[in-house]
Amino acid sequence: MDDIIALESAGLTHNEAVIYLSLLKEGPATRSGIASATKMYRTNVYDAVHGLQKKGLSSCIRKEQKIMVVPAHPSQLLLMVQERMEEIERIIPKLSLEKNLRNDIFEVGIFEGLRAAKNSLYQLLEYRSPIYAIGTPKEAADLAGHFLERFHQERIKKRIWMHHLYNSDAKARIVRLARLPYTKVKVIPEEKKSLIAVTVCEDVTLMKFWTKDAITIRIVSEKVAQSFLMLYQLLDEHKP
């Protein structure tokens, strides 16, 4: 039984393993003889013998007007396993890439409306990690109303730093934020201002189109978040 399990682990079906061991022990046999020796139905024997032939573990010869099934040398098993290993090694890089991509992006969602835009921003406070905002337009404060004031109050209460890169046309908002604790504000040069607001915290990236029918794209991806943080750093270090 242990030999059968070992052969199954090497890629043989149960019937193939039983027949192969029988052929090694009893020698070449006809399909009828194999059925008799293994107590298998002939249909199952034919299928299993065909499988052994495809794996290179048996062949057929004609002897005295009979078709005999001959087992291959057991060393063929090592070659078969080696070929399987080579096939696996060949596809591992592709599988690893697919796994990394799948593991990296857990969630992508698109939400409509100001309520969704506000909620997605407020949820970032649960991470208790620094928040980075890029290209926030002046319309954001007007559309969000008193929500942003409550958001910043809660953020400051939790001692969460927020780093802003505001569009240059939001001067009043920039002055207001610059007075808040745990807050850093800088102006994006006019030629580099963004048409959308991007907010990053941990592995969450929010892309907000601040209009009356606000649209928010929420991406949970470490790689995407890191890419936008690199953009933030480039803009933050920009010197006019």
Structure description:
There is one protein chain. This protein has 240 residues and is an alpha+beta fold. The chain folds into two domains: 2-77, Winged helix-like DNA-binding domain superfamily/Winged helix DNA-binding domain (Arc Repressor Mutant, subunit A), CATH 1.10.10.10; 107-236, Endonuclease, Chain A (2-Layer Sandwich). The chain has helices spanning 2-9, 14-26, 31-38, 42-54, 75-104, 114-122, 139-144, 147-157, 171-178, 222-236, and strands at residues 58-63, 66-71, 107-112, 131-136, 162-167, 183-188, 197-201, 204-209, 215-220. The strands form two sheets. The chain has a seven-stranded mixed sheet, sandwiched between helices. It starts with a helix and ends with a helix. 23% of the residues are buried.
Salient structural properties:
240 residues; Arc Repressor Mutant, subunit A; Endonuclease, Chain A; 2 domains; 7-stranded mixed sheet; 50% helix
